[in-house]
Amino acid sequence: MTRSARPARFTLHPDFAVGDVDPRLFGSFVEHLGRCVYTGIHEPGHPTADGAGLRGDVLDLIRELGVTAIRYPGGNFVSGHKWEDSVGPVDQRPRRLDLAWRSTETHRFGLSEFIRFVRAVGPQAEPMMAVNLGTRGVAEAIELQEYANHPSGTALSDLRAAHGDKDPYDIRLWCLGNEMDGPWQTGHKTAEEYGRLAAETARAMRQIDPALELVACGSSGRSMETFAAWEATVLAETYDLVDHISLHAYYEETDGDRDSFLASAVDMESFIETAVATCDHIGARLKSTKRINLSFDEWNVWYQRRTALRPEEDWQEAPRLLEDHYTVTDAVVLGSLLIALLRHADRVTIACLAQLVNVIAPILTEPGGPAWRQTTFHPFAQASRHGRGRVLDVRVDSPTYDTAKFGAVPLLHATAVRADDGTVTVFAVNRGQTEPLPLEVTLLGMDLTTVVEHTAVADADPEARNTLDDPERVTPHDVAGTRLGDGVLTATLEPLSWNVIRLA
Ligand code: AHR
Questions:
Q1: Ligand 1 atom 3 nearest Cα
Q2: With a 6 A CB cut-off, is 41 part of the ligand 1 pocket?
Q3: Within 13 A of 217's CA, how many CA atoms are on the CB side?
Q4: Which UniProt keywords apply (predicted)?
Q5: Which protein residue's CA is at the shortest distance from atom 6 of ligand 1?
């Protein structure tokens, strides 16, 4: 129930800022899972494929999406992965059981193909490589690092050259395992076991290259029984050796409770704030001046309750797994999750939308056929394009609505980013399902006179989707009536909408 129809308000001033946006906040994730790689980004023989088998239509969409850091090769997959299987002549690579997703991995796409893919995405993209700390350990991590990054003159760097890649890949950003707190993880560990292993691995990797950026595994969800205690134990071991700790969160509508689903970012913001508090608590205990930042390296809407591995699909190559088809409601929630990340840009320096293609992804493909944008593609692409610069402090005064999970929640969720050229973009979500929400923003200390555009993702049907037959059903549309005069921006936000308002 909406409590009041009064306008939602906030004030912007350039002197009151959260922090600068790290471009890696707009990262994504490619896992060997289902069809993310095979028939997603890689499909030799597809009409748009290049000589390396990379789909040109998908690459175009990924560039438009504007992703930066791309995490690889998993996910749960990495915890049973032998990196050596994924290099060298493709026809000699082994087929292996992937225990995580009960699939057969052919390794037709591996490390060098991934690096080629990241370079094809463009200069804004960078690899974020995960090492296996489930079934493997320190030795294999530094061997992979030597293969990938050492220039030449050692067995593994020369092997890379013999495989055709003379120049090192120069991977700067590394994840020390994946979700090691989760009992489902191959090689799952206690916090003490993982903390020691992560510290030893980080120390060895830094012996080769002290300047690497390293991410330790935090909790795979804040509902994990070990959340916060896990982070505290792991950071007590690794504080001086790592730069970031990871967070993962997925949201879905349950039991028809759309009001709570639309407030998912309340949970995400509180997860971030608790993780920051835990990092800083360990820093204080260690009397350290160093700050650990957050890598929110898996986040999205994911209908996990509808996801089941089907026995009849066991050990198939690239089966259709986790192919969620997103609605306009999902797009609005995803936009709100982006707002949550931006509102914490001072501490969230990396974030990866999980995943990139086909698997809970903003892009869908058909083998041999087209690729298209899901509803969720649009808020991400717009935020990545216009959300670069300094996040301004937004303190919302908004009418509220009642939710079963979070109590009274503001109808307005918003942030604002000021670019280097002084232009400002307001990102705003109206969580209300039925009523338009009037918005008033007071602009102080900035010479802003013009509304460049106001677009919204919204639809009369909250279940509207983009499909193979109707791929443009949901796209951002222009919103009329938005004004800027006497230093006050006024707009009306449609019910259940994601809004981008650009001011110059
Ligand atoms: O993104 C899908 C899976 O979710 C990842 O493999 C895993 O890390 C997480 O549980």
A1: 75
A2: no
A3: 34
A4: Carbohydrate metabolism, Glycosidase, Hydrolase
A5: 75
Report pLDDT digits (tens) over 240-277.
999 999 999 999 999 999 999 999 999 999 999 999 99
Tally of CB atoms within 10 A around 385: 14
Distances (CA, A) of 271 to 129, 191, 225, 340: 24, 19, 14, 10
207, with CB counted inside 10 A (0-12, 13-18, 19+), is exposed
Is residue 280 predicted with pLDDT exceeding 80?
A: yes
CATH of domain 8-13+393-503: 2.60.40.1180
Rounded to whole angstroms, the Cα distance separating 181 from 199 reads 16
Distance in Å, CA 75 to ligand 1 centroid: 5
Distance CA 193, CA 217 (A): 12
Fold of 22-386: TIM Barrel (3.20.20)
CA of 76 to the centre of ligand 1 (A): 6
Sorted by where each begins, the domain ranges of the chain are: 8-13+393-503, 22-386
Compute φ and ψ for 279, nearest 5 degrees. -60, -45
Task: Tell me whether residue 105 is one of the annotated catalytic residues.
Answer: no
Rounded to the nearest 5°, which phi and psi values hold at 207? -65, -35
Catalytic residue among 179, 200, 231, 494: 179
Angle at 440 between CA 435 and CA 446, to 5 degrees: 150
Sheet with 390-392: strands ordered across: 17-20, 390-392, 412-418, 424-430, 497-503, 451-457, 477-478
> Does residue 298 carry a catalytic annotation?
yes
